Amino acid sequence: MKVGVIGSKGRMGVEVCNAVRAADDLELVAAVDAGDDFGPLLDADVVVEFTVPDASMGNIAWCIDHGLDVVVGTTGFDDAKLDQVRAWLDGTSSRVLIASNYSIGAILMMEFARQAAPHFESVEIIELHHPHKVDAPSGTAATTARKIATARAASGLGEVPDATTHDPHGARGADIDGIRVHSVRQRGLFANQQVLFGNPGEALTITCNSFDRASYMPGVLTAVRAIKGLSGLTLGIEGLLGLA
Ligand SMILES: NC(=O)C1=CN([C@@H]2O[C@H](COP(=O)(O)OP(=O)(O)OC[C@H]3O[C@@H](n4cnc5c(N)ncnc54)[C@H](OP(=O)(O)O)[C@@H]3O)[C@@H](O)[C@H]2O)C=CC1
Ligand SMILES: O=C(O)C1=N[C@H](C(=O)O)C[C@H](O)C1
């Protein structure tokens, strides 16, 4: 397959270009970044997009307009943006796959959190990242929170217990579908997430660490190879790994 990369000079884009070059069955035919002519992407069978939240929607629209399939790793998607992508895809043959995390550890962390969610009264998420990250909370934390909230609702669990009525500084963190998320930005770290569950007399903590951007490459290449078998908008690669 011929692969194009948008965001090719970024931290993830560089890693993706190298992973594509190293794969026997893939060929890197285009590598573009901010300000570049996107024309060379027209030679690609599939485009991989790792840029910034403010640019990603425009890049996805460009790919769909030009009949291309796109594997998106950029974070910062909410329901409104996803609905917009679905609307763009309507009546086209393009495919878009968006995943907030392509590492197997993070995908399993989210799956384990989804399984644990109906069984614990309390749950909070702490995500810790390098200080260059522009979006908060992380896409992974937002996805995890939504999966937990859905699993809690399906099992009839009510709100997470919390007596806080006075929080003038926002110390309780972000609220995503009723799940508290705390974002830490720390020099020396790359990417870590902890999901803290609690019940009377017990606690369960699920932790995932990424130490290197190499951790995302098997998932990204799996998505690249699988996208022609998908249709419309696909969220996450759990299904490609037999987890959904
Ligand atoms: N899904 C996953 O598994 C993972 C997702 N991510 C996400 O991937 C994204 C990228 O992360 P990272 O590589 O660290 O970020 P970087 O800031 O290192 O890279 C982003 C790149 O995109 C470029 N860019 C900005 N605007 C455009 C545009 N309109 N068209 C083309 N290129 C553009 C930037 O150029 P310039 O700097 O000149 O503006 C930069 O080279 C983030 O949203 C991050 O959260 C990260 C790791 C894993
Ligand atoms: O910006 C990053 O670095 C990362 N972003 C993704 C996210 O927002 O979840 C994935 C990973 O945590 C690294």
Keyphrases for this structure?
11 strands; NAD; six-stranded parallel β-sheet; oxidoreductase; 244 residues; binds ligand LZUJQKHR; alpha/beta; Rossmann fold; 31% helix
Would you give an account of this structure?
The structure is a single chain. The chain has 244 residues and is α/β, with parallel strands linked by helices. The chain has two domains: 2-98 and 214-241, NAD(P)-binding Rossmann-like Domain (Rossmann fold); 104-210, Dihydrodipicolinate Reductase, domain 2 (2-Layer Sandwich), CATH 3.30.360.10. The chain is built from six helices and eleven strands. It has helices spanning 11-22, 53-65, 79-89, 104-116, 139-154, 217-226, and strands at residues 2-6, 27-32, 46-49, 69-72, 95-98, 122-129, 174-176, 179-185, 191-199, 202-210, 232-235. The strands form two sheets. It has a six-stranded parallel beta sheet, sandwiched between helices. A five-stranded mixed beta sheet has the order 7-8-6-9-10. Helix 2 runs parallel beside helix 3 (79-89) and helix 4 packs parallel to helix 5 (139-154). The chain is elongated. Residues 6-7, 9-13, 33-34, 50-53, 55, 59, 73-75, 99-102, 135, 139, 216 line the site of NADPH dihydro-nicotinamide-adenine-dinucleotide phosphate.
Helical content band:
25-40%
Question: Order of strands in the sheet with the most strands?
Answer: 2-1-3-4-5-11
Strand content is 25-35%
Number of helices: 6
The profile of the biggest β sheet is:
6 strands, parallel
Determine the N-to-C terminus distance.
26 Å
Q: Which runs of at least 5 residues are low in confidence (pLDDT < 50)? A: none
In N-to-C order, the SSE pattern is EHEEHEHEHEHEEEEHE
- Give the overall silhouette: elongated
